[in-house]
Amino acid sequence: MKHTLGKQERLKSRKLIEKLYQEGNSVKAFPLRMIFLQTEHTSKFPAQVGVSVPKRNFKLAVHRNRIKRLMRECYRLQKAIVYHNLDKPYVFMISYIGKEEWNYDELFLKMEKLLTLFIMETKHTKDEN
Questions:
Q1: Interatomic CA distance for residues 82 and 115, integer angstroms
Q2: Are 31 and 98 spatial neighbours (Cβ–Cβ below 8 Å)?
Q3: Which residues contact 65 (CB under 8 A, 6 or more apart)?
Q4: What is the pLDDT of residue 129?
Q5: Neighbours of 29 (CB within 10 A)
Q6: How many CB atoms are located within 10 Å of the residue 37 CB?
Q7: Model pLDDT, residue 53
Q8: pLDDT given at position 73
Q9: Helix pair angle (104-128, 61-83), 10° resolution
Q10: Which residues, 6+ apart, have CB-to-CB distance to 13 below 8 Å?
Q11: Among residues 19, 24, 40, 120, which one has the fewest Cβ atoms lying within 10 Å of its Cβ?
């Protein structure tokens, strides 16, 4: 598997993002929260992902952009956790809900925990249906 995060793997569709926030479920591994929704999308990849950092917690754009860059990098290196366990297409948004900036190593571990929780949650919902 290639460790890339190209245009096809990023969540850009406003309609999908709106639907995601209205109908999606969430899992948390502080300081990260993932809202996810099983839905069809235009990509050939099993998942499309977006990242966000609230302006309320980080006033300066350079701080928000750095956190988003770190989050994308952590996801890019660990997306195999998600890709090997999904059989249906998903869209999800990963939000940074902390009030102060975490370093890369801590964020990497939390991203791993978040993705594992997401897989457990999707397996749990699949077992119910």
A1: 7
A2: yes
A3: none
A4: 63
A5: 17
A6: 19
A7: 97
A8: 96
A9: 50
A10: 41, 42
A11: 40
Partners of residue 26 on adjacent β-strands: 35
Whole-angstrom distance, CA of residue 55 vs CA of residue 70:
17
What's the half-sphere exposure (Cβ side, CA atoms, 13 Å) at 7? 0
Give the C-alpha separation, 2 to 17, whole Å: 26
Q: What is the pTM of this model?
A: 0.92
Mean pLDDT, each 10-residue run in order, the chain (129 residues): 89 95 96 96 92 96 97 96 92 96 96 96 77
Cα distances (angstroms) measured from residue 44 to each of 48, 82, 113, 121, 126: 10, 15, 25, 23, 22
